[in-house]
Amino acid sequence: MQALYRSFDTQAQVDAEYNPSLALAPGDSPGAHFAAQAEAARANIPCSLNVPYGPTRAETLDIFPAVQANAPVFVFIHGGYWRSLSSKDFSGVALGLQRRGITTVVVDYALCPFVTIDEITRQVRAATAWVLRNIAQYGGDPARVSVGGHSAGGHLTAMCLQTEWARDYGLPQDPFAAAICFSGLFDLTPLRYSYLQPMIQLDDGVIRRNSPAFAVRPCATPLWITWGSAESHEFARQSFTYHAAWRAAGNTALLEAQPGANHFSVIHGLENPHSAVCNWLAKTLQSAP
Questions:
Q1: Backbone dihedral region of 137: left (phi > 0), alpha (psi from -120 to 50 degrees) or beta?
Q2: pLDDT at 288
Q3: Which residue from 184, 173, 146, 183 is spatially nearest to 286, judged by alpha carbons?
Q4: pTM here?
Q5: Are 271 and 96 within 8 A, CB to CB?
Q6: Which of 219, 224, 220, 242 is nearest to 280 (CA)?
Q7: CA spacing 20 to 30 A to 218: which of 39, 74, 114, 158?
């Protein structure tokens, strides 16, 4: 029997690697954690919610400004396998960053199957372009804008890094001062054989256009590729695959897991101003030219 993908013969085997909810302990509810943190952020940090960056109702972002003027900026792209969740579920990422003097922008976008992954990629690129052009109105420094995302958001971060910004947007070719991919999906091929396929509707063209591991360009942006050390082998492999492609293009990046983290807790560091993630971002953005 021919394998579906690599060593996977059945959908169940693919799902065991790519459905992180299957590995949760009984009673573990990462959604409840994120909801509580998001509510705390919106209640305690002055913010501008549902700021439009594009023409459709889905194209909005939430801005949590730092206290000081001309602050560095982190644009966060949420996960949910392109078919669930929203910016409001992840307001909590601003809790640690704002206390480090970093303005946080959380992007919302339309979801599959209402739109395709191609369209989601376009929307996220439009969102980051909007931030680069407009964040000064909210006290942010457009020369120190960073970008990062979790899971599907890690994929979309990588798609931003391969964008031809000068050609397509009239922006600097490498406009980001830093980037972090948390547990990203960089080769979409195996997801075609997973429980996700009815919602995300992958075909050869979508996979080819949206697998950043196979389209890395030379890029000067400082990058951290990370995942949780308690995640499945495939999530680790995805990060190693992308790192190898990133280096093959002549780029440099930190490749390092978050110790003890699973697929959901891997971004908890953004909620803690003293975490390794917040430390790395603050240091990298401080030293940006």
A1: alpha
A2: 78
A3: 146
A4: 0.97
A5: yes
A6: 224
A7: 74
Of the candidates 33, 87, 92, 75, the one whose C-alpha atom is nearest the C-alpha of residue 263 is: 33
Find the DSSP H helices in 104-211.
117-134, 152-161, 165-169, 197-200, 204-209
pLDDT value at residue 257:
98
DSSP 231-280: S-HHHHHHHHHHHHHHHHTT--EEE--BTT--TTGGGGGGG-TTSHHHHH
Decide: helix, strand or coil at residue 221.
Answer: coil
CATH class of this structure's domain 11-286:
alpha beta
Report whether 246 contacts 255 (CB < 8 A): no
Which sequence spans correspond to the domains of the chain? 11-286
Six token digits for residue 113: 């199957």
Q: Give the mean pLDDT per block of 10 residues along the chain (289 residues).
A: 86 97 90 97 98 97 97 98 98 98 98 98 98 98 98 98 98 98 98 98 98 98 98 98 98 97 98 98 90
Give the model's pLDDT for residue 1: 62
Q: What are phi and psi of 97, to 5 degrees?
A: -65, -40
